[in-house]
Design a protein that fits this description.
The structure is a single chain. With 241 residues, this protein is mostly helical. The protein is built from ten helices and five strands; from the N terminus they run αβααββααααββααα. Strands 1-3-2 form a three-stranded antiparallel β-sheet. Strands 4-5 form a two-stranded antiparallel ribbon. Helix 1 packs across helix 2 and helix 1 packs across helix 5. The longest helix has 30 residues. The chain is elongated.
Length: 241
């Protein structure tokens, strides 16, 4: 199954899913309503400025993939559009809400997903979000992946794979670590030789040698973290081979 979507297709699909749940009285959507839904400034990242031609082309592609299409309505002369993800994937409501938020706002932590999905589905606990994410990750092919945790952050971010952004986003998470490691290496290499030693031969804590020793220890820690990130990235790339 070809699940690859462009950014515009992902936005159109996410907007259709959102409006079906949040404003069912106005669903399916006319082309004008769909354009407005795609371009709204709230609950969108990034904000887009799509015209009718762009949305129409995206709808044609989504129709070819059987993810969306024209609705069979008899009460309107205006063509309206709907998504068909339920027919293709048989999602649960939690899965639908999580995927919709990821399509509309990109990579997010479970806590962010829980708060932003409130209008679509109420998650009682954070574990409920993690359970839905886990189900989406176990799909064949996977629809969601976890990104390597960035330095200084407590939560991992999750990214939908339908728009194919994960391959580009994963290496970015390791760049701050690589930059820090390079800076430490340069600092250690340019540091003057240690001269002050304690009786046991170890650098004194306040000496230049002691500072170099601490830097070397931090370099070792960063190297270990990079090896872990490399292993995660290798496992992540297997999903695209």
């Amino acid at each position: 199954m070809d699940i690859r979507l462009t950014d515009v297709e992902a936005r159109v699909l996410g907007a259709l899913v959102e409006k079906e749940i949040s404003t069912p009285e106005y669903y399916p959507l006319s082309l004008n309503a769909l354009v407005n839904a795609c371009n709204q400034k709230s609950n969108r990242e990034p904000v887009m400025g799509l015209d009718e031609d762009a949305v129409t082309l995206a709808m044609r592609s989504l129709s070819d993939k059987e993810f969306a299409g024209a609705a069979n309505t008899t009460d309107s002369r205006v063509r309206k559009y709907e998504h068909r993800l339920q027919e293709v994937f048989n999602f649960t409501r939690p899965e639908t809400a999580v995927l919709c938020v990821l399509l509309l706002r990109g990579a997010q932590t479970p806590g962010e997903i829980r708060g932003r999905a409130e209008r679509l589905h109420h998650f009682e606990h954070l574990d409920d979000v993690l359970m839905a994410l886990g189900k989406l990750m176990k799909r064949e092919p996977p629809l969601v992946a976890v990104l390597p945790r960035q330095p200084g952050t407590k939560e991992s971010r999750y990214l939908e794979l339908m728009s194919g952004e994960a391959a580009a986003a994963a290496p970015i998470a390791a760049e701050p670590v690589n930059a820090s490691l390079q800076a430490f290496r340069e600092h250690v290499e340019n540091a003057p030789p240690a001269k002050e030693m304690d009786p046991a031969g170890a650098p004194r804590p306040g000496s230049e040698g002691g500072r170099v020793a601490r830097l070397e220890a931090e370099v070792r820690d960063l190297r270990a973290e990079i090896e872990t990130l490399k292993a995660q990235l290798a496992e992540f790339r297997k999903q695209f081979e």
